[in-house]
Every structure is written in C-alpha cells, then in structure tokens.
Amino acid sequence: MVSGGYEAETGKKAVSKKEETKEKKTPEEQKGKEEQEQPVIRVLLKTGGYTDEVHPNVAVSAGGGLLLEGAGGKREAKEGETVTIAPDDPLFEGGTIRVKTKKEGDKITISSLKRGYGVPSYRGELELFSTAQGIAVINELPLEEYLYAVVPSEMPASYEEEALKAQAVCARSYAYCHMEGQAYPEYKANVDDSTAYQVYGNSAEQEKTIAAVDATMGEKLKYHDTVVKAYYFSTSCGRTTNVEAWGTKVSDANSYLKGTRVEENGTCYEKDLPWFSWSCDIPVETVSNLFGLNTGQDVGTISQIEITKRGEGDVALEMKVTGSKGSAVIRTENKIRSALGGNGYKIQKQDGTEAASAKLLPSAFFTVEKRGGSFHIKGGGYGHGIGMSQNGANEMAKKGKDYITILGMFYDGVEITAD
Q1: Residue pLDDT, tens place only, 251-267
Q2: Biased composition, Basic and acidic residues: where in the chain (predicted)?
C-alpha cells in the first residue's frame, strides 16, 4: 500500500494507491490479458443534440468495410461504402442487427449522426434495435476504449497530464458503477452518451487523453472496498460540498464526498479563473416570470428572496421566495439554480467578460439581496460543487501535483485500486 498519510493543508485523509503484484509478462502477453479481462460497456447513442433515444435511420461505414448480421440474414459493405438502415430493413426480422468492422482496429462511422467534432466514429460494435419510433443504436465496446472518447469529451485534451489522469480514474469509476445496472433495460444498455451519465464521443480522441487512460488502466476509486461514483464538475469557488446539496442524507457510504477547501496554504487554486466568482442583476419582473415558469408556482411579483438553509461549503440548500401572491420554498442545489435560471439577463464573470444566463444559475454557492428594482446575486464556481473540480484539478497539476494527490483533495479516504 502506498499512502500519503494525513494532509495538514486540507485536514483530510490522503488517498492511497494499492499496488498490484504482477507476474512479469511480455508486452504481447500483457496486452492480450488486459483485452481478455476488460469489462464491456453498452452505450445508447442518442440523436444529434442528444434529444432523442431513437434515430429515423442509421448510415454506417468503415474504411475496411463492414459486416452486418441479423435474424433476417447477412450483408456486407465494401471498403468505405455507406449502408443506410431503415427501421423496416429485412435484416431485423424481429431481431437485432449487429454491425462489425471487417478489419480489426477499424472504427464504425455513423454519417447520419453529428457530434461536436463533426461526423463521429466509434470503436467496438453496434447493435441496432428496430422500434415503432425508429432505430435504437447501442455501441458495445471494452470499458477502456469507451474512456478514450469520454475523457476528451469531459475535459479538454489541452489540460495537464495529471489532471487528465485524475479525470480518467473518475470516469472509469463512474462508468463501472453504472455497468452494474442497465439504464435502458429494453436494449441492455448501461448508459447513454449524454450528460445524464458521461459525455461520450462528442470530442475526438486525442493522444494525450488516450495516454491518460492507458497510464491509469483499470484504476478505480474505492471507499470501504466498494467502487464509488466519482462525481465531478467544472469549477469551484474555492470550496466543495457534500451530497446534502442533492437532498441526499449523508451516510457512511457517501461520506467520501465530503466538502473541502480547494486551496494550498490559504490560497485557492482557481482564484484567477473567470468562473471563480461571478455576479448578476436580475430585474424583479424577469425573476418573477422565470420563477413561475421554472417552478410552476405563481407567487406573483417577487419582493424577497432568502437563503434559509446552507450546507457544507456554504452552498444554498433551501431558498424562500416571497411575492405578492404568496411564498414558496425551494430545496436542493439543482432546483434552486433552476428556479433562478433562464433567459433574460447577463452574468458578469470576475475577468470582466459576460455570459448569457442559462437554464441553471452557474452554481448554488451564492448570496442574494434586493437592490432597487433588481435582485443582485453574487456567487462563485460553475456546476454542482460535489466531488472533483475539473479546473481545480488542472490548476493543481500546473503546480506539480500528481493525480493521486489531486484525487485525495476531492475524495476523502478513498483508495485507488486496479483489482
């Protein structure tokens, strides 16, 4: 066991890494063993913009050609040839269609789909399900290869190597937990490729992110010998919080998600980042309309907004809104951010730039006061504030912290293990 012991700077028990004793193997033997042992994940690929679960049709191709096999027979596609499959394709015949590449190592391109980097290509195989609404597309592939397209989609490949390694361990742990169940049992799919789970395949694979996955191969975060969901978010305000922000009772099972100060010697790692602090002024009429639309509760013209309960890290847990027609209480960070979110105002970041308001307030780490005909909200950070701050991880890596130290900052008392 390699352990950093107790970190005086954070007052948290440092993460430890369990070193595996491995027999010496040739690189070929080791690669073969890893491929054989790798668990397989099944991912539902949503439509463009991640709006729907099923596609009107699916157009596929591969550089070395494809093999398509279903209950209704088999079909081949030549090198680079695109095959378009409709829901009534004879290959379905009451079953599914498996799509494989002829050439090992090829990817399957889905030209009927668009992602952030353009037309996406996928490792592994596809299984297509014909439904009354269209075609459900399931990408089945080894977990490590799945991570090749998760890490760059969740964290910029330009980030520091140690931050990318930390992200890889988090993403692997999170995926592993979801592989124990099926988000879409009708398709035997563990997850989908959207923000509902982890974004997969929205950015192209990069050498740096592949290297980060390979360097941490198999490594997951465990707490009390159980792999944990390693939640993460964009940017902290110098503090994180615990699961109470989601309305979940703090227990022994989730206490690895403990709030912490993201700092060293009293200096916040992210203090110079644009979203570290922000503010906005929302006119009374605007906030009154948004609150009604977002919550379905008509309190009339709002005269007062109070944060009536706070949690670890000073996050808002409960908000009371009083208006001309009554009052309402909103609980949990997501519902509070949603209640005050929407179009119609600007958010000023600390670097002087502005951002348009969005569906959610940037974070629930904020104060609010009425100033004349507007409500002034001053906050910090971006995201839910639970688990690892991705920008915090990157700033720590810039200061020479390795991924084990980074993970120890955000997850309390966990162990990194590849077993």
Answers
A1: 999 999 999 999 999 99
A2: 9-36
